[in-house]
Amino acid sequence: MTLPTNELTKTEASQGGFPPAGGVAAMAQSIHDKQHNLESVVNEVTTKSESELTKEDASKVMSAESRAMDGIRPPKGSTSAHVQSVADHNAQAQAQVQPQTEGQEQAKQE
Predict the structure, then answer these.
(1) 19 and 13 in contact (C-beta within 8 Å)?
(2) Where is the sequence biased in composition, kind Polar residues (predicted)?
């Protein structure tokens, strides 16, 4: 049987006034907060189109996903891995466009 975080807190508090640090309620709240943070970061990043995703976005998602997994690096196929792949592709595409654009600007100046 699983209890919502607030019920765990009430149960533990009734045993001594306040829920103990490191108790079940504190752990449940921590897990909830980490998952909520991950959800918020993913929602923020996914409001962008894939062509707008940056390495900074990928870093935010990986950090939040890692925290939600108690510090474990997210595995292949995870949300952060996908965002990282798209961001790498975008960075490569941007790097290829910049030299062409710079060359065109130099030709115009000559």
Answers:
(1) yes
(2) 1-14, 91-104
